Amino acid sequence: MIDGFTLIKEEDLSYFRGKGIWLRHDRTGLEIFKFVTDKINNYFCFNFKTPLDNDTGVAHILEHSVLHGSKKYPDSELFFKLQQKSPCKDLNAATAKTYTSFYAETCVPRDFYNLLDMMGDSLFFPLLTDEVFMQEGWRIEKDEEGQPKLNGVVYNEMNNDDKKSVLFYQKLNRDFMPGSNENNNSGGDPLHIPECSVEDVRSFHKKYYVPKNCFLFLFGNMDLEEQLKFLDENLLSRLESGTEKAPLGDDVIPFTEPKDFEVFSPHYGTDEVNVELRFCIEDEDRDTINLRDDFFNLLKYALTDEVIAPRYGSSADVDTFGTSSHRIFTILLFGVEKKDVPAAKDYLFSLFEKIAEEGINPEVVKVFCINQDIDFEDNEFDVNPNALNDPSFSGWIESDDPFVNLVDPEAFWARNKELFTNPPDNFFQNLTKKYLTENPHKAFVVINPDEKYFDKIEEAQNKKFDELLKKIPSEKIEADSKRFEQFQKDSLNGKFAVEIPKVDISDLPLPQDVGLADCEKVKTKNGEVYVFSSVQEINRKTHFSILFPCDALSPEECFYLNESISFLKKLGFGDYDIKETFELMSNASVDILDYFIDSDCRTVYCENVEEYQKRYWFNISFSIFNRKIEEGLKLVKEWIFNKNFNDETCINQYKLQFKRFLEQTKDDQATVYGAHYLHAQCSDCMILNDYLGGPHLLAMYKKLQEIGFDEVINKTFEAYKKIILTGAVFNVFACKDQLEKSKKALIDFINDCGFNSLQKEFEFDTNSLRKEMMLEDKISDGIEINTIITKEENNCSLAMFNGSPYPSKEFAAEEALMQWFSNTILYEQIRKCNGAYDVRADVSPSDGTVRFQTTRDPDPAGSLDTYQECLKLMAQKKFTEEELNEIIIRIYGLAVSDISPKERGVFCFARCLSGLNPEFRKKRLQNLLDLKTVDLEKAAERLYEYSKNMKAMIITSDESKAIGKIIARLQ
């Protein structure tokens, strides 16, 4: 190890397939944890402990602000230039309840050091100017009518109904855990964000962004000594040691007796309430914490029947959350009639009183232990840096030891399993009493829907804003506005721009192509099916997919199937109910991974289309342990072909849940509806996926309510029974030594089931479907903008128009151009100037459509105008060779990043279905490398002309700002 660092601990972490090295920088006290692995993607994460004592969002504003200029790199747009120029796979930051993290992941060593240098300087030596605070935090400016309003990236991010809808829960957590800083609003409550000042941000930085309060996590195959030497020379040698690590600040004041709480939540179309019983548990000893957590997992399993079919309400959920030392265990009932609240309270308490008296059924414990064994045996996860940073950092925070949470969990489980299977007298009863029934720190909570929930929040915000205006002289507001406008102009004109370290094309690794799966035809008694297979580096399991062509059904049948997939997945088989099915599948080590309608393979790139290409699929994916392949496939056969359609428990629950779903607003689906509508507007042929996701679904949901749930269920069953007879294609991937065995078992399974040959695609009436979606018969020329009205304030804008096909040279130029466009002009004009939280523009390889979207946008209509103006500006731009190289490096770097074996197994199969062979990918990359500046300029001119037929949508809660037709009202 190099001088200046002390090795604290080094340990093999075989369970995680690597080695951990924990060090401390002697002079500053900054601690570093390196996870050594053979992965080519290298990663770093600066983690700071940032406890909060208010809801002003100071940590969140600081997270944004440090990335806008530093002592060494005083560029106000440094972070977004890195996103534009770096070939990194990931570059981002996050503010959590008690910490803030800044991370990057890249497969290019030079890029790693560039990012490490710039990120380190930004975190420890930020400029934190007044103007950056106004941009990223909050400011007062005039709207188009000359009235004062609040703006700012963090303020706009938090001031939307999606964020405000959970404010009531944060208040509940605060009341339930008094004394803990875990429950302050880390992002910031928009009511209190204007209470934060730039001085607060600077003080917060000075206090917490110091070496002794920083935990630097490194991951990858790069040489550690070289990394330490680089850190010492470029960052650590410039730092002072600073204050000590921030205290945990989790001093919960325990209750002396149970409490009742009543809170008010947003109203989503139903007057029923949710009720919750929650417990706060305090533990400090690691062994006790692990036993407690396994016991809570056992309790969740023991309460499976109650979760599936509670006595009151439509559904239930059992959960745990919080820190290791202060855990909350909760059971929540959804959709309870108000008259049933007292009975529901007694019911919830009785669940645990019964366990405290009688214990847990040994058969339930036995099955739970089997499932736990399987979970631990299933160590097939791909090593993920984020998944390792979190437990090591939390161990460092809570126990001053990053290794404490990186132990092999099987060792703890082996001890706890012995206790569970051979428990001492009254073991489960005593644990239940300790943590639940005799624990005074518990509360019964009634969550009432309030139709005026958002109105009350808005009223409070308006009142607070009026008070703020009275405190700030109008002259100061005017002066600050002028100052900020000048800052924006200077920034856009490059006044603060500096040269940043670059990556050359020669630094990039060669692409790692996943290839294509092998394909063969297998004869069955009812025809022929296609089986795809590939070797992947997965040791203990085999992964399977069965795909049924859902486009062989009518659009109506597909609709019923699509809306009921989660329900169908839960149905048992034969004479077994849901829980028994779950136990049988688990005992056979069958893990159902995916159960969905897949449209990604609709686009086919090859000229000669095979019968398994250009289809929509009903995809069932699952994995089975290699030692149980035959047993597992037998159960999958039962699960697919012998669904228990008489399972009254499941059907009744489905009716209740679907009823609530139909009654609720669909604000969270607004952007999905808008995107499908625009895509259908731009397409000259009706695409089934757009039909299954467009805004006309609201009318279809009303029809479902009218025809009754029994009829809905019958139609769903009919569609399912029909689709499993429409033929299938299969995919299997496993390790080299296992693949042939698993493939043979799959072929035996296929022959045993007698799958049919693929049926042809249903020939549906395109015109009638377009009519249902409220579309014209043909694509219309010219720009068209319409509106979706939402109940919640989650405003955004969407736009789409047709570009050039993949993988042509024109497509390569347009893809490269939109990457640059999104991170430069659009960012500057829409995020920086207009205050939208996010803006993106790209080109879809599936059909060449050029797509644009803003998120949490205070002015969606204005953003569309700006988008069109920016396209015009781009069409007039002359690109330099330097800009071209930066664009190429960015896109090429993303294309060659490492992927996991599971992703490879899925990709090489999906590429067969879409005809996307390796030559297409090589052609795409070669077209990218061959680009000239003139290609970008021609692409810019071309896209501007294409955009004259753009179709767009604004999504707003303010009907007075609607444009064109109102396509849907999500109210």
What topology, given as strand order, has the largest sheet?
1-2-3-9-4-6-5
Task: Please tell me what the overall shape is.
Answer: globular
Number of continuous helical runs: 36
Average predicted confidence as pLDDT: 88
Radius of gyration: 29 Å
Kindly, what is the distance between the CA atoms of the first and last residues, rounded to a whole number of angstroms? 63 Å
Low-confidence stretches: none
Question: Major beta sheet, specifics?
Answer: 7 strands, mixed
Give the total of beta strands: 26
Indicate the structural class: alpha+beta
Oligomer: single chain
Can you give a write-up of this model?
This protein is α+β, with helices and mostly antiparallel strands and 971 residues long. It has 36 helices and 26 strands. A 7-stranded mixed sheet has the order 1-2-3-9-4-6-5, sandwiched between helices. It has a 6-stranded mixed sheet with strand order 15-16-20-17-19-18. The longest helix has 19 residues, at 453-471. The model has no long low-confidence stretch (mean pLDDT 88).
What's a quick, concise take on this entry?
The protein is built from 36 helices and 26 strands. The protein has 971 residues and is an alpha+beta fold. The strands form five sheets. It has a seven-stranded mixed beta sheet with strand order 1-2-3-9-4-6-5, with helices on both faces. A six-stranded mixed beta sheet has the order 15-16-20-17-19-18.
